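Issue 218. Parser rejects a valid record. Input:
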Amino acid sequence: MHKPPEWQRVADAINAAQTILVVTHVRPDGDAMGSMLGLGNALIDMGKEVTMAVDLGTPEFFAWMPGADKVLAELTSGSWDLMISTDASDEERSGDVGIYGRANSQTVVNIDHHRTNTYFGDIHLVDPEAASASQIVFKLWQKMDIAWNRDIAQSLITGLVTDTLGFRTNSTTPVELEVAQHLMGYGASLTEATYRTLGVMSSEELLLWKTVVPTIEIHGAVAEATIRRTDLEAVGLDYLDTGNIVGLLRRVDTVRVALVMREDPGGIVKISLRSDPGYDVADVAFSLGGGGHKQASGADFKGTVEECRATILPLLQEVIAKGTLEIG
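Output the parser choked on:
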């Protein structure tokens, strides 16, 4: 059951703490990085001793973000007055740095916007109505009346842009546009955030498309594509955000739901889902142990690509049967 965000308790915990750890979820997307850096940069500005960490460190795709070079790839020592987890709906999503952090922090704050949040930790700032975790961090800083600077604002607008797919999902309301306007007033560049996250890809990703495109299949209103581990290694990629590929599939005029399956180490298939307004893929992701939003969700499937496909396609066909395009 949803509980009201504990704004004052979070503010009090931050003010009382001197050493603070900020972590986010494994294989971070733009909102994960944006909310973590938006917190970390501001906390450093406040004079706190700040550690930021995510398993494997900052993905190269997000290396341009302010403060990204300060993010640790693992935690093997240290203890903190306060740990803040951002954009992670459950403890497992925060990975090894989350495990270490929770065991070595006096208090744990959980900041998230997913409706599937398990309310782990001691203090909760969970708002399922928010389009992004970065938006929640923005509201926290507004309430705490911090001194804004471009590094804080740029991080948060990047998270907002990526989780709304450039303000194109049905989670975008006047509130999100107002947040963006405020952040731009604090020095953030909407142009840079949009270009760097939604407007470019690496040359390695382009080469990968040569092997991914032939895997595309369309099943009525569902389109799918597969990324094999060997294909990633062949072009020199350890990791790939699937947003560009799944976004392409969703743009096909007859497609309502897009699916990309990416083979990850450890026998895991990373599922990325996108859908048109009116088609809810969040429940499908949740049923497979993941989560997200109605139009953008994901999950980790234990098994082969073939097993994953056999499991998820019938669920997505149910989404198609229940949905109706809502663009008015």
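Fixed in the parser; the record now loads. The chain has a mean pLDDT of 94.
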